[in-house]
Design a protein that fits this description.
Helix content is 29%, strand content 33%. With 255 residues, the chain is of the alpha/beta class.
């Protein structure tokens, strides 16, 4: 596991919820630590430094609100983002969580897009940058067209906003390109711009050298297709396999 990978504690006494949400977060690129109740969370926090904590509202021994208060009352932990999750929206509980300083609020079944957005907003509150879109690992050959030149690269990640290509000899930053790829048996050609490079750093063996491409002038149809492919690869099989509704893909209206 890369030392820069963000760690998230997921606390819920419902094992199925923990399993599905953990798998989903891992596919998003996060390290997940599971807990069954608030006491376990506080015990973990004595030895683990997570970047975000997700708490179920109703847990035995120590419920979500009690755990949230304990975290926010601890000077060493009070800046830790805590996201609350409940089976049913309740205005009173929501206000109590907000008053105690929760970073976000999820209603079960957990919506994929809202989960991603709240985690990124929570991380952004204590960091400089924020992922604006869902992202998946890809590791797929693509073609990049720059002027009269066409080169093959491997795309390591993909989001609605762009892709990261492994490249020891990247194109210059600012180069306008077109990228061809096949997703779900459909060919896609998108305009893009090289926005930065990454070099292999000494001692950091998991960092692949390459270049980041930001998609430009994406049509509404292509954007919807990208979003659908990414969401399906993240959670499609999980949605199909769940015996009870724990996750959803379609965006839900915010309360």
């Amino acid at each position: 596991m890369d030392e820069n990978t963000k760690k998230i504690i997921v606390a819920d006494d419902h094992e199925t919820s923990v399993m599905y949400i953990s798998i989903l977060l891992k596919r998003m690129g996060y390290q997940v630590i599971a807990a069954g109740n608030g006491r376990e969370v506080l015990s973990l926090l004595e030895s683990v430094s997570p970047d975000v904590v997700i708490l179920d509202g109703h847990m035995p021994f120590m419920n979500g609100l009690e755990t949230l208060k304990a975290i926010k009352d601890d000077p060493k932990l009070k800046h830790l983002p805590v996201v609350m999750a409940t089976a049913h929206y309740n205005e009173k509980s929501h206000e109590e969580y907000r008053a105690e300083g929760c970073a976000g609020y999820l209603t079960k079944p957990v919506d994929l897009m809202k989960l991603s957005r709240i985690i990124e907003e929570s991380l952004a509150s204590v960091a400089r940058s924020q992922r604006r879109n869902l992202r998946i690992a890809l590791d797929q050959k693509v073609q990049v067209h720059a002027g009269a030149e066409t080169r093959d690269f491997y795309a390591l990640t993909l989001s609605e906003g762009g892709t990261y290509l492994r490249a020891r000899d990247p194109l210059p930053v600012g180069t306008e390109i077109e990228i061809s790829m096949t997703l779900s048996e459909q060919s896609l050609r998108l305009k893009g711009l090289v926005i930065y490079h990454k070099a292999r750093l000494p001692g950091v063996f998991k960092m692949e050298p390459g270049m980041a491409i930001e998609f430009r002038e994406v049509t509404a149809q292509s954007a919807a297709f990208l979003k659908g492919v990414i969401a399906d690869r993240l959670a499609g099989d999980l949605i199909e396999e769940q015996d009870e509704e724990v996750l959803t893909i379609e965006g839900q209206a915010d309360h």
